[in-house]
Amino acid sequence: MPCSLCVTAAEPRDKRHYTLFNPTPRELMRELSTDRPDLTEGPYTVDAGHFQIEMDAVNYSRDRERGIRTESLSLGVVHLKAGLCHSTDLQLVIEPYTTVRIRDRDAGTVDRHRGFGDITTRLKVNLWGNDSGTTALALMPFVKLPTNQDNLGNDAVEGGLIVPFAAELPAGWSLGAMTEVDFMEDANGSGYHPEFINTIAFGHDIVGKLAGYVEFFSLVSTERHARWAGAVGFGFTYRLSADVQLDGGVNIGVTRAADDLKPFLGISWRF
Predict the structure, then answer these.
(1) Backbone phi, then psi, for 171, in 5-degree steps?
(2) Where are the beta strands (DSSP E) in the chain?
(3) What is the spatial distance between Cα 118 and Cα 259, in angstroms, rounded to a whole number?
(4) Tens digits of per-residue pLDDT, 191-225?
(5) Collapsing DSSP states into helix, strand and coil, what is residue 6?
(6) ω into residue 37 within 30 of 0, thus cis?
(7) Confidence bin at 108 (pLDDT 50/70/90)
(8) What pTM was estimated for this model as a whole?
């Protein structure tokens, strides 16, 4: 029997009876789909009974504002995914090592923080389009657990809901879009406030197994005195096999509240 979270519209080949313990046969698996490298999450889930690892091998960020320069380097940030059933997967995001360097030019000080980061749990439920159709939509609630070391986080439990959407466009183009609401702790720790994230990305094959994308990102916080953070992103993916993909790219801040520069390299594989 399919689990209650896995009831979707009938597919051309009904795969709803496959589960974590009754894996989808390889000949029925859909094409590899990842939530990286762009910031726009995808609506497609991992096939039932299969697993996927998506890793930020290297992720660097740099920001300079009012005499303060902040640099961050994360290594091996990993998204672990397990296909629970036809339309649902469970995800765990782990930040094994991050180092942050903050230099205040006016005060002449340098602060460093390094260690393990936070852990985030996510559940993606595809509502339609997992295996067929020109559009797809999903819901992805998540909770962040404050497991960080050395003041790398705010030590608060936070969460929210992500709604990713995808569509096929003419001339071989693809569109990804996402709206997200996060409930974040106030800077003074007195309560929580919502933040709203919206993204849109356009992708296209370039040559052979190489594809590229361009993305626009926006974050608006309702906290007092918070500023809009906007960024643009560019990146590439290269499919090594049906189950392995390399990627790289950069996000560039277009407002003062966003990081100035965030280049990254990553890899994804499915088994």
Answers:
(1) 60, 30
(2) 51-65, 68-85, 88-94, 97-104, 109-115, 119-128, 135-145, 158-168, 174-185, 192-207, 210-221, 229-239, 244-253, 261-270
(3) 20
(4) 999 999 999 999 999 999 999 999 999 999 999 99
(5) helix
(6) yes
(7) confident
(8) 0.93
pLDDT in tens, 173-192: 999 999 999 999 999 999 99
- How would you write 43-66 as a 3-class SS string? CCCCCCCCEEEEEEEEEEEEEEEC
Q: Which two tokens stand for residue 254?
A: 């277009």
CA 221 to chain centroid: 19
> Residue with structure tokens 């205040």?
104
* Residues whose CB falls within 8 Å of the CB of residue 221, separated by 6 or more in sequence, listed in order: 184, 193, 194, 195, 196, 227
Closest by Cα among 136, 139, 192, 177 to 161: 139
Tokens matching residue 239: 């499919």
Whole-number Å distance between alpha carbons of 228 and 224:
12
Q: Tell me how far CA of residue 70 lies from CA of 61, 101, 129, 156, 196, in angstroms.
A: 8, 6, 41, 22, 24
CB atoms within 10 A of CB 112: 11
Per-residue pLDDT band for 12 (boundaries 50, 70, 90) equals low
| Angstrom distance (rounded) from CA 167 to CA 45 | 15
Q: How far apart are CA 132 and CA 153, in angstroms?
A: 40
Q: Domain ranges for the chain, please list them.
A: 15-20+40-270
CA distance 208 to 169: 19
Nearest to 164 by CA among 245, 32, 44: 44
In the 8-state DSSP scheme, what is residue 150? T
The CA angle 196-120-251, to the nearest 5 degrees, is 55
Where does 15-20+40-270 sit in CATH, by number?
2.40.160.40
Q: Cα-atom radius of gyration of the chain, to the nearest Å?
A: 19
